[in-house]
Structures are given as structure tokens and as C-alpha cells.
Amino acid sequence: MPGVTRAGGRSNTRYVMLLHLPEGYMPSLVRDALITKIQTLPEQLRRSLTWDQGSEMHLHAQFTAAATMPICFCDPHAPWQRGSNENTNGLLRQYFPKGTDLTVHTAEHLDMVAVELNDRPRMTLGWDSPAERMTQLLNTNHSQQQCCNDR
């Protein structure tokens, strides 16, 4: 589903971040929205982003240069290479049925949907929610930084 990205760190959190793209999915719009969204994450969580072969990522090199975060592309017609993304797309279909014009939804509405998805426990996370896993990851990274800074 275009306009969807997830953030993860050393262990996958399944954390969902949605992009607001009211003017469509042109590569320059996706690049700019993705840069803005990714830069809200702490730098240590910006490891890589996995994407399909969609034309909206035509400017991936510019994104990588601006966000210092490489994009990994899946092989064509290989959705199993992005299983978590496919699962997230299924969850998003509960809010946005296939064919929904996502450009009509506000950024606030997309943020509300992301919060609901991130608060939803997942079996694959041992029934933790993505929000809980992200908090744990941020606390772990903060503790490690404190430790290293104390030396």
C-alpha cells in the first residue's frame, strides 16, 4: 500500500508510520514525505528501508543521500520478501478498503490509524504491541548511550 512505511531497529518492532500524500504518489512527493517522516526517528533507528519495485521510489538515491538510510528493494513479484509489510497492508485494509483514495485523508487521520495499529498487540511480538517494542528499543538505545557517555 503506497504511503506506508515501518520503522525498526536491531529487532523488528513492526512500528507503523504512515505518509500523508495528498497530491499523489509521484516519486518527488514520496521522497520528500519519506525524508520528513524518517527524520523524526532517532538516528540509531535509521538502518534501512525495504521497498517493492514500485515507481514511486524512482528517486531512492536522493532519499538515501538526504536521510542517510539505504533502501533495499525486493525482487519483483516476491511479496514473501516483505512479509511484515504485506501483513501491515492487510491491517490497513481494515481502515482503507482496496481502491480507497488515500489522498482525501488528513495527516491527523493517518496518524490516528498509525497509533491504533501501533497499540495493537501482535502474536509475532509475543503479544507486545509495536508501540511497546519501540519504547523498549528507544529505552535500550538511550541506556546504551548514557553508558557510553559516562566513560
Q: Helix-strand pattern, N to C? A: EEHEHEHHH
The CATH topology annotation reads as Nucleotidyltransferase, domain 5
Radius of gyration over all CA atoms, rounded: 16 Å
Q: How many independent structural domains?
A: 1
Count of individual beta strands:
4
Major sheet strand order: 1-2
Secondary structure category: mainly alpha
CATH class category: Alpha Beta
- How many helical elements? 5
InterPro entries: Integrase_cat-core, RNaseH-like_sf, RNaseH_sf, Transposase-Integrase, Transposase_IS30-like, Transposase_IS30_CS
Family: Belongs to the transposase IS30 family.
Function: Required for the transposition of the insertion element.
GO biological process, one term: DNA integration
Q: Concise description?
A:
By secondary structure, the protein is mainly alpha-helical. It has helices at 27-38, 60-67, 83-92, 107-118, 130-150; strands at residues 4-7, 15-18, 49-51, 71-73.
Describe the structure.
By secondary structure, the chain is mainly α. It contains five helices and four strands; from the N terminus they run ββαβαβααα. It is globular and about 35 Å long. It has helices at 27-38, 60-67, 83-92, 107-118, 130-150, and strands at 4-7, 15-18, 49-51, 71-73. The strands form two sheets. A two-stranded antiparallel ribbon has the order 1-2. A two-stranded parallel ribbon has the order 3-4. Helix 1 packs parallel to helix 2 (60-67). The protein starts with a strand and ends with a helix. The chain has one domain (4-150): 2-Layer Sandwich (Nucleotidyltransferase, domain 5), CATH 3.30.420. Residues 1-138 form the Integrase catalytic domain. InterPro entries: Integrase_cat-core (IPR001584), RNaseH-like_sf (IPR012337), RNaseH_sf (IPR036397), Transposase-Integrase (IPR051917), Transposase_IS30-like (IPR053392), Transposase_IS30_CS (IPR001598).
